[in-house]
Amino acid sequence: MPQIENTSDRSQHNLRAAHVSDLGSLVSLHQGPPVDRSYWMTAVIPGLGIILGTLGYGFWRAYYGYTQFGPVAAQVWSRPWFLAAALAAALLLLSFSIRQRAARKFVVVYKNGVRLQLQANHARHFHWSQISGISIGTVRGHFLGLTTKIRYRLVIHPNVGRPVRIEGSLQNFAGLIDKIKEQFYPRRFSELQRPLRAGEWVYFGPLAVNQLALRVQEQLIAWEKIKRIAVDAGVLTVELKARKPMRVPTAQIQNLELLLKLIEVGVV
Fold first, then answer.
1. Is the pLDDT of residue 79 over 70?
2. pTM here?
């Protein structure tokens, strides 16, 4: 009997391979936290120990209650420990599931673009020409009113579609940001200079610039009225000569470094 080949699957595989080859040579790979030996030693095995210890103590309480006072005492004395073991098992399974999902995430930086998978079995790719900008901010974790951890967040803004948010749980996240900037910024910088020299507005999220003025959240400010522009602690401050300074969180600004470079080299 002749072998039947699934040409649909093969064509889809070839199409995906062609897309990746269009992105050029590999620059860097950044994956989610792995389910490795370290995770097993620090989370899974201690969790199993707690579950088995709690469960064993519950059986001992049931045995002691039954032999000394009968079945009612056995049931009453052991139930809280069995419930605690069940709760611990559910939390361990939830933790393991979250870790597995995180381990499947990845971002691959190529010479001509980026490929990413932030959801299970849903990979996407962008050529640099399909991206209008990137922005970087911080995410603060909170527990019982306290800040537990501060992580970086990278947001890719495609020309079409919703922004893609990448959380800082990927390995070497700072290196990922640097590699994307190295590949994307030089191309984007040359693209931004042309409309500026033609007198057009160029947008950086809530900011926009042309040769005559800076627009901050719909407020137009001529360059000669600006004393200084500075970035500190995640905030861009526009100091004015005759008014109070204006502040914008850097997480809202696309291509912040390119904006500052355009101002520095005197394009605007």
1. yes
2. 0.77
Query: For position 11, what pLDDT does the model report?
Result: 36
Widest CA span of the chain, in angstroms? 93
Contact 168, 150 (CB under 8 A): no
Residues 6 or more apart whose Cβ sits within 8 Å of residue 111: 23, 24, 25, 27, 183
* Proportion of the chain above pLDDT 70, given as a percent: 87
Identity of residue 12: Q
Cα separation, 43 vs 40, whole angstroms: 5
The CATH fold of domain 22-32+104-185: PH-domain like (2.30.29)
Domain boundaries, the chain: 22-32+104-185, 37-103, 187-265
Average confidence (pLDDT) over 44-63 = 95
> Please, what is the average pLDDT of the chain?
86
Q: Which CATH number fits domain 187-265: 3.30.200, 3.60.21, 2.30.29, 2.60.40?
A: 2.30.29
Average pLDDT over residues 232-257: 90
Q: Decide if 22-32+104-185 and 187-265 have a common fold.
A: yes
Cβ proximity of 152 and 174 under 8 Å? yes
Bridge partners (DSSP) of residue 146 are 143
Give the three-class secondary structure for 77. Answer: helix
End-to-end CA distance of the chain: 72
The residue to which tokens 């499947």 are assigned = 104
Cβ neighbours of residue 210 closer than 8 Å, sequence gap 6 or more: 196, 199, 200, 201, 202, 268
